[in-house]
Design a protein that fits this description.
The structure holds two protein chains of two kinds. By secondary structure, chain A is an alpha/beta fold. Helix content of chain A is 29%, strand content 16%. The chains are: A alpha/beta, B alpha+beta.
């Protein structure tokens, strides 16, 4: 293999697939660059926020003669340092993509056959409003489900749902970090807890992959910590990029809780915990001590496959570094049915080390409403204003997923999120009652919810499916009505609070006029739809500028002020850790539990699940000849969102299945071979990536590929859709369970 | 002392995210399927579970004794006033001698212009205006640094005094201006 070929195969080797082709080819000289006439150029920089993923990183958009030419990180935000990832850099490629949705459309053929007619916005709104009216009359507002990828559009999107009295409003979070949210809520009474990676000296990741699942500020903080000499330990069945930067411990899948409980066992036995912290700020330590008393390193070795000497060594190293030591609580966390207990256990061990409200530990996010509880911090920032709405009709039923019902696990599910996979089940089974219509905003259940075929079966059963997106997604292709949203580079959005150690507000504003004039921003779409549905009173503002001003005025800020830098942080305010200088400082203002304690044992969790402290549950391990199927994120794509974006598709058009070299040898599989992956219920074709970077009993692929919408012309039919193989098992707190599937692999 | 621009790549800090790859494409309007820079993965090397993996950014090495300049029949490839290797597309006839001569495989024929193309350190568009090259500005992992290696106060000079650096294919005698630091990397 020559070098060029080598590069072709190796460039995104971590994805198993090449970056494009080389520049060589039969080319004739066209026009020298300097022959292009230079005219007067008008160049501006617009400060806004990215939306190539969910993180909303601050960006600086370069606009030349009305065209976006380049996107950089916003240098006005020190945490982001003027840096943006490959996806953020690719924004113009999405903006000008001719494959974007350009007109509202109504279905004219069978679902999934791609037959649509272009309609006016008014026709689209009228169609939706009329259909919803009939469904509402016949089955009640609760029979309409709403699901979006969480974001600033939700205020408008969800208003439609609340306006018709539906309790069934969902985010995508059950497919991502929700078990972590549940854990934090149950212990601290609040989800807004973050980690100060940059100042940590010892960081342990349980599959967390900051260097491929990129959040600019957090990724930079991890790299800063490493640069300052921090040790990074990564427990993951496969060698992620993050694992390659630290000590890789290829833990047996689904056994992380055993490792964490053994850490607790060792720390308690060796009395390495922060006794004063535990006594002063926590409750339930005795029950936790009881729960881990037999979780010895020997026991954990048997569960996790990690030698007990390694478990003891890492635990001691971690304890030595306290409180600047972080066991990370994860990001994409719906791995097993009881995943939330793993997240609780992780946070319990953290709190045993007293790493709360100190540099290099965890902290309560310091938004203005928190900082103003402290006399010395008052006056730096004021909270954003809320736009008041009239009272919504009270839903007549409970939610389909049991969210909020006392005494069952649903009690623990965050109300704003819900168990989004239950929508599919309720459509198909009619339990607990029938869902007849589904409104979907910037979310792609066919790829993002487990068991794609089952999702599709459900979509086909609906009386109404409405999808608002920028592409003809794999879900949009089954919709009755498709609403084309404009891209994030063409719209305003409500100002969002991105506070960390100090308050911070970030603006998204248009960099250019609409590229496709018949697309609209989501705020306008739902306001106009709402007006068509006689819900206009719930949208009490004229336009988005008016909405934003009403947010900013109470905060003492103005839209024109925010436009100048794109971000606002209080002048002169230092990162604020409550216990930095006083290890006994009161935490009463940051813990929202009635007990005023960080609850290791939770009465609420006991009531809901009979497990007030986390208990170990052994999950099945793959039998001989089978593999555990795990998945993850890649740096050049965002989940189900970007695989058709031209420049990113060029970098990585498909994924492949990672399989250990020894395992592949046994099956006669060579690198690059066509294979068939089977769960026993579903099959998927793919290509093998034979590697030493994965456990022999595990296979892996990156998420978001294997797309079925033919209108995603670059991505269509390429690679493996992991969720086709994973069953739609709904976890204890409504989460997806993505690590529970066992598969066989054979040569195609 | 005369300016000598150089780029330092701390390989251990490269996370292979390809932010540099994409930033370069937009900064320099590099056509679809073509790249002035990219950061391919090397590895995993070793045998499970004792493995290592790293990424190594590739681009024009800005040689001070550049084979591409030597072979160019039209003087399209030349050294500019700062000693950087540049291409004058008006003079390029697309003969591809330079593509063959480059030991780093860093050149290609630009599908839009038909001329030979490669990294320029973003000199005209950015460095001459006091900015860093696009790849350096957007580097997420903090792997890339750029500046005057002759200026002891520059980032690059400071790093180079602390760490041992290597040139790619030093045996070719090309005297590159890209300094690779492999501290902390298992190869």
């Amino acid at each position: 293999m020559n070098r060029r070929q080598f590069l072709k195969y190796a460039l995104y080797g971590a994805g198993g697939t090449a970056i494009g082709v080389s520049g060589l080819g039969a080319l004739t000289k066209v026009a020298p660059k300097s022959a292009i006439a230079t005219t007067n150029t008008e160049e501006t920089t617009v400060f806004s926020a990215c939306e190539m993923c969910r993180n909303q990183c601050p960006i600086a958009v370069k606009v030349v003669n009305g065209k976006v030419t380049k996107i950089e990180g916003n240098p006005n935000d020190s945490g982001f340092g003027g840096v943006i990832c490959a996806r953020g850099n690719s924004g113009p490629s999405l903006l000008y993509d001719p494959q974007r949705l350009k007109k509202p459309m109504i279905r004219t053929g069978e679902r999934g056959t791609g037959k649509y007619k272009e309609v006016s916005w008014d026709e689209a709104y009228t169609y939706i409003a009329d259909k919803l009216k009939v469904i509402q009359q016949d089955f009640g507002g609760e029979s309409v489900a709403f699901a979006s990828r969480k974001g600033p559009h939700d205020w408008f999107f969800r208003t439609i749902g609340k306006g018709i009295g539906s309790p069934n409003i969902f985010s995508h979070e059950a497919t991502c970090p929700m078990t972590r949210s549940v854990a934090l809520d149950s212990m601290f009474g609040v989800e807004a807890i973050a980690a100060d990676y940059a100042n940590a000296k010892y960081i342990v990741s349980f599959g967390r992959n900051w260097l491929e699942g990129i959040h600019i500020a957090q990724t930079r903080a991890i790299m800063k910590a490493i640069d300052n000499g921090a040790k990074l330990v990564v427990l993951d069945p496969r060698l992620s990029v993050t694992a390659s930067k630290g000590e890789w411990i290829p833990i047996k899948g689904t056994t992380d809780l055993a490792f964490v409980m053994a850490m607790a066992n060792i720390i308690i036995t060796e009395e390495r915990y922060d006794k004063d912290f535990v006594e002063r700020y926590t409750s339930g330590f005795d029950q936790w001590k009881e729960a881990v008393k037999d979780k010895t390193p020997e026991w954990a070795e048997n569960e996790t496959g990690i030698p007990k000497e390694t478990i003891i060594r890492i635990t001691r190293e971690f304890a030595e570094a306290r409180p600047q030591a972080i066991l990370d609580f994860g990001w994409r966390t719906g791995l097993t049915p009881n995943d939330f207990q793993l997240r609780r256990a992780i946070m319990i061990v953290n709190m045993m080390m007293g790493n709360f409200e100190v540099p290099g530990g965890y902290y309560r996010i310091k938004n203005a409403s928190v900082t103003n509880r402290f006399p010395e911090m008052t006056g730096y920032a004021k909270a954003l204003g809320a736009i008041n709405q009239p009272a919504f009709p009270k839903p007549v039923t409970s939610r389909i997923d049991g969210t909020g019902i006392k005494g069952i696990p649903g009690q623990l599910i965050p109300e704003g999120d819900g168990a989004v996979g239950q929508i599919v089940e309720s459509i198909l089974t009619g339990q607990p009652y029938q869902i007849k219509a589904w409104m979907v905003h910037r979310f792609n259940p066919v790829i993002s919810i487990t068991e794609s075929d089952r999702v599709i079966e459900a979509l086909k059963k609906l009386d109404l499916l409405v999808v608002c997106d920028v592409y003809m997604t794999d879900t949009a292709m089954f919709a009755d009505v498709i609403l084309p949203e404009c891209s994030y580079l063409e719209r305003h959005e409500p100002v969002y609070d991105m506070s960390g150690l100090t308050p911070k507000y970030v603006l998204r504003q248009p960099a250019v006029e609409l590229v496709y004039p018949d697309t609209k921003p989501s705020w306008q779409i739902y306001k106009e739809l709402g007006e068509k549905m006689d819900l206009g009173k719930y949208f009490p503002f004229q336009n988005i500028e008016n909405y934003i001003s009403r947010q900013l005025t109470p905060a003492g800020l103005s839209l024109s002020q925010l436009k100048q830098k794109g971000v606002w942080t209080p002048e002169g305010m230092k990162p604020f850790y409550l216990r930095a200088n006083d290890s006994q400082a009161s935490l009463g203002n940051v813990i929202s539990k009635v007990s005023q304690k960080i609850e290791f044992y939770s009465e609420e969790v006991q009531h809901a699940t009979k497990q007030g402290v986390p208990q170990y549950k052994r999950h099945p391990q793959p039998e001989e000849g089978k593999f555990r199927f795990v998945q993850g994120k890649v740096a050049v794509h965002t989940n189900a969102g970007t695989v058709n974006v031209p420049v990113l598709n060029e970098l990585m058009p498909e994924n492949s299945l990672w399989i250990n070299k020894a395992s592949a040898d046994n099956l006669g599989i060579l690198d690059g071979d066509d294979i068939i992956i089977s769960s026993g219920i579903y099959e998927h074709k793919g290509k093998a990536k034979v590697t030493e970077g994965i456990r022999p009993d595990t296979v892996f692929c990156y998420h978001g590929f294997g797309r079925i919408s033919p209108e995603l012309k670059r991505a269509f039919g390429k690679g493996i859709n992991d969720n086709k193989l994973i069953l739609n098992q709904i976890g204890e707190v409504g989460n997806v369970c993505t690590s529970m599937t066992m598969v066989t692999v054979k040569k195609a | 002392m005369a300016k000598q621009y150089g780029m330092v790549i701390q390989v251990a800090k490269c996370i292979g995210c390809q932010a540099c790859t994409v930033a370069c494409k937009f900064q320099n309007e590099v056509p679809e399927g073509q790249y002035r820079t990219k950061s391919p993965v090397f590895g995993p090397i070793g045998t499970y579970p004792n493995v290592a993996m790293y990424f190594e950014k590739e681009a024009c090495q800005m040689c001070q004794k550049a084979p591409c300049v030597n072979v160019c029949p039209t003087k399209a490839s030349h050294y500019d006033e700062n000693g950087l290797v540049m291409i004058d597309p008006d003079k390029c006839v697309g003969c591809k001698y330079c593509l063959t001569a480059c030991p780093y495989d860093a050149r290609f024929i630009n599908a839009k212009t038909g001329a030979a193309d490669k990294c320029t350190f973003c000199f005209e568009e950015r460095v001459s205006k006091g900015l860093k090259p696009a790849c350096v500005s957007t580097c997420v992992g903090g792997s890339l640094s750029f500046g005057d290696v002759n200026d002891p106060n520059s980032d690059v000079a400071k790093i180079l005094t602390k760490s041992k650096s290597e040139f790619r294919k030093a045996e070719f005698g090309t005297h590159p201006s890209i300094y690779y630091i492999f501290d902390g990397v298992v190869r």
